[in-house]
């Protein structure tokens, strides 16, 4: 399916639009990190009012290095593979995470999107609605989805063998819904992932010391980011069609918010054209299709999960 979309993309778009904006990506990378440092410092050393403002801004600004990592995951940060992976690896510690782990998770998401293995807005026959609601509220709406990722990195640093353990894969990972992801991690180089997890931890320790951060300021910023990032990961999919490629939305959001996320909110266009750089996505949005706002879907998520329609089922946003 992705190959069909890629052929369509080559047919209808000019070479100029297709071009990966590597120099712009590097410039954004060089600006994004100092911006996050300034906000973390302000949250740690400013008044309560300034700390809250810094945390609010950090929730959006820290999405920029994440979006650059997302570009690298798809190989469109740079046309040069080595530079692409280099900047992807350097963008990951701001999250913080391992670039390889993110690549495994995200490419797996493109294969499993809206299937029974990856649903948060619905519950399947035989599943507990209470448990699914708990996962939705705590994970996507309260930000704990983000917290699970740095925690999993720390676990990998201490016990990397756990991720290849059959007991862990078929036990806790299966019950938490991470089994396919953990199985794919087990097939990759332990040393490479371990070093990337170590890089992420080292970066966080280094900025903590260099900026004299307080745990309150750091936590305030990252929890604000967790609330925004965790919600967005499913707001751009919730109640959409149960279709691997078309099960997403091109959300309407304020231009500054979309700019800081490098057009991440044009998520249906991204799923249809996963090899298109972020600069090309606006031209790929179909304005004749339904385009809800972020808040339309976010507020509906607080209503809890619904019974899952069959695979191939239409959007249930209006029901």
Characterization of this structure:
The two termini are 29 Å apart. Mean pLDDT is 92; it is low at 1-14. By secondary structure, the protein is mainly α. The protein has helices spanning 2-12, 15-18, 22-45, 48-61, 63-73, 81-91, 99-112, 129-141, 144-158, 166-170, 172-176, 179-185, 190-210, 215-235, 255-260, 267-272, 281-284, 294-301, and strands spanning 122-123, 306-307.
Which characteristics define this entry?
globular, 319 residues, 18 helices, mainly alpha
How would you summarize what this structure contains?
The chain is mainly α. The protein has helices at 2-12, 15-18, 22-45, 48-61, 63-73, 81-91, 99-112, 129-141, 144-158, 166-170, 172-176, 179-185, 190-210, 215-235, 255-260, 267-272, 281-284, 294-301; strands spanning 122-123, 306-307.
